[in-house]
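note to self: dont lose this again. the chain is below, predicted strucutre after it. 177 aa total, dont forget to put it in the shared folder this time
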Amino acid sequence: MATAAEIFNRDGYRGTDSNRIAKEAGYATGTFYKHFKDKREVFLAVYETWVTSEWAAIDSELSAGREPKETARRLVELAIDFHTKWRGLRASLMELVFTDEEVRRFYRSQRRRQLDVIAQLRLRHGIPAGRREDDAIHLFTTERTYDAIGQGELKALGLDHEIVVAAMVEQVFALLS
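---
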């Protein structure tokens, strides 16, 4: 899975084949097919692992006991780091969401899971409860903004990185208060 993640991130979904994943992981092609039926299945497993690790890191930051403003800043930095490091994987994911019904269904199931995680984190960390719709809007807007930062859109558009990050910190801080 780690090798597949690296290859998808580096070469994109379309530029990757299961034989290369197996070979770079040090396995025979047949071994790959004992664990995954095809490239899409391993891609979805990689994406699910990515989502799980991002939310585990968020939970860890929320558990650190920092002041809310500092927590918000660290959460934004964490998300930017995730979306920057994994920009190739994220770009392939977004392409597939628009072109592949199976990926779209899986992506939406992960979205539902993310909304459930947000509700659980709110409860566990004493963050005021919010409407699921508001959490979805937050998820949609912040994720797209983090992707834009990771993909270099701010620079391409002549936008000030620090201003955008400060706005994101304020948005996350408002949720924590």
